[in-house]
Amino acid sequence: QVQLVESGGGLVQPGGSLRLSCATSATIFSTNTMGWYRQAPGKERELVAVVTPGGIRRYGDSVKGRFTIARDNAKNTVNLQMNSLKPEDTAVYYCNGRKGSFDSWGQGTQVTVSS
What is the DSSP string of 3-57? Predict the structure, then answer.
């Protein structure tokens, strides 16, 4: 059963912007820390950004100042605004919901930054 549904990936030129969205159930959204992780070919999955139910945000060092994570409480959605994209941002981006032992992942959406 798919609990996290991602959208918004695609191809963008260096310096461009993309917005990823992850929709989930009201129960998961309201109680879980929601976030985005990414995995590039040949590399380990890494943190992009997370936001707690209370709104506390944490970012990976490589995206600080360029990416913004936000919760849309009306739509049970977590959004990732990605600006000033670089080729090294190319990866599959995964939405995550986590609380205690509960750890749920979306199927991933491809982001490719290339000219």
Answer: --EEE--EEE-TT--EEEEEE--HHHHHHSEEEEEEE-TTS--EEEEEE-TT--E
Mean pLDDT along residues 14-43: 95
The first and second tokens of residue 43, run together, are 């590399």
Over residues 61-82, the pLDDT tens digits come to 999 999 999 999 999 999 999 9
Residue type, 95: C
User: What is the number of other CB atoms lying within 10 angstroms of the CB of residue 111?
Assistant: 22
By the 8 A CB rule, do 104 and 94 touch? no
Q: For residue 81, what are the CA distances in angstroms to 16, 41, 89, 95, 103?
A: 11, 22, 13, 13, 23
Residue 97, both tokens: 């919901």
Residues β-bridged to residue 82: 18, 67
Eight-state DSSP code of residue 84: S
Look at the chain and count its residues.
115
